[in-house]
């Protein structure tokens, strides 16, 4: 324990300082009462997001504002990676790689649709994908050539394997799902490099993320792509999470929402309030927010503290992104669209 305290004391102080800049329930109250993007933008200038927005004008569109919010998240990853003990770096890098994977999927879609120029402005502000230079990948003439440029990354072998399926179907879906699977499988592997004192809370974080990803995948493939249960199971992440393969198989085969919800384990009872498959993802996000806050109050001298902070900030930005998008399009946010805000309000009222 003493050794862990010594290892994590400095990075814990850094994490605590970063966490102090999180938006409060009062901040959210003001942001939700804002009439337009200008008011939201001006308010955010007075928060720790301000330095990332200062070069933008109040007339800037919500998409560019959102990407700058994510720039602050990636800066925090960079800061913490400098100071966490070497055995914890793998977990943080694996968490950040989820955004590198989103960029890779976007590049794949851009090349497939011959829209390379259009997708450049939509990429998360990261310079690489699994150690490979982003600019070089963007210069690939096509999808097959892009895959060849990924030889030094963990994405190469699985993508190479599904290229015939991509060519036969003429759609990028198999490639996108393969990128997701490779990303989350690497996240599971990152836990193996942790010692016992670090692994417990980190495992809880990863379990929730994988369960959320699997539930979202089942609902999406069932509702949007109309895939069979057997096909859906092939796209799920196994080896971690509270939902084992047997439970995931049952969920994939469930025909109605009521049956689906009845199959969820006790720890996910809050999901049973869902009135549609699409609500499950948001309710799961609130469960994750609650877990992140809980971990943040536990033993601070373990890598789960840094992981929880970064994931909490991620949720904060996702909630801001939904708010900015709704206001930018002149839409009304549906109740429950901001799970983190709902959890902060619940805590402040208790």
Automatic annotation (TrEMBL):
GO terms for molecular function: proton-transporting ATPase activity, rotational mechanism. InterPro entries: ATPase_csu/dsu_sf (IPR036079), ATPase_V0-cplx_csu/dsu (IPR002843), V-ATPase_V0D/AC39_subunit (IPR050873), V-type_ATPase_csu/dsu (IPR035067), V-type_ATPase_csu/dsu_dom_3 (IPR044911). The keyword NADP does not apply. This is V-type ATPase subunit. Pfam families: vATP-synt_AC39. Belongs to the V-ATPase V0D/AC39 subunit family. It comes from Thermosulfuriphilus ammonigenes. SUPFAM superfamilies: V-type ATP synthase subunit C. Coiled coil: none annotated. Keywords: Ion transport, Transport.
């Amino acid at each position: 324990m003493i050794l862990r305290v010594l290892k994590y004391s400095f990075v814990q102080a850094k994490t605590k300082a970063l966490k102090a800049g999180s938006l409060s329930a009062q901040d959210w109250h003001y942001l939700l009462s804002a009439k337009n993007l200008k008011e939201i933008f001006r308010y955010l200038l007075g928060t720790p997001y301000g330095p990332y927005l200062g070069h933008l004008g109040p007339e800037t569109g919500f998409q560019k504002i959102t990407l700058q919010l994510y720039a602050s998240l990636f800066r925090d990853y960079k800061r913490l990676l400098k100071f966490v003990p070497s055995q914890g770096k793998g977990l943080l890098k694996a968490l950040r790689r989820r955004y590198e994977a989103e960029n890779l999927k976007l590049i794949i879609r851009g090349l497939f649709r011959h829209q390379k120029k259009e997708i450049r402005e939509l990429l998360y502000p990261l310079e690489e994908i699994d150690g490979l230079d982003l600019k070089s990948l963007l210069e690939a003439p096509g999808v097959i050539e892009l895959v060849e440029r990924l030889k030094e990354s963990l994405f190469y072998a699985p993508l190479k394997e599904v290229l015939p399926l991509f060519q036969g179907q003429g759609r990028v879906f198999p490639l996108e799902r393969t990128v997701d699977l490779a990303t989350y499988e690497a996240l599971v592997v990152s836990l193996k490099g942790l010692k016992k004192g670090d692994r417990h809370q980190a495992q809880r974080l990863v379990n929730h993320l994988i369960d959320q990803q699997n539930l979202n995948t089942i609902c999406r493939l069932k509702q949007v792509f109309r895939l069979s249960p057997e096909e859906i199971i092939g796209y799920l992440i196994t080896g971690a999470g509270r939902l084992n393969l047997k439970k995931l198989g049952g969920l994939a085969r469930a025909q109605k929402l009521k049956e689906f919800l009845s199959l969820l384990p006790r720890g996910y009872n809050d999901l049973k309030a869902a009135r549609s498959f699409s609500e499950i993802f948001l309710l799961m996000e609130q469960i994750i927010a609650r877990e992140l806050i809980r971990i943040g109050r536990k033993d601070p001298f373990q890598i789960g503290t840094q992981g929880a902070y970064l994931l909490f900030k991620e949720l904060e930005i996702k909630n801001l992104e939904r708010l900015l998008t709704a206001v930018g399009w002149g839409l009304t946010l549906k109740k429950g669209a901001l799970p983190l805000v709902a959890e902060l309000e619940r805590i402040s009222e208790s």
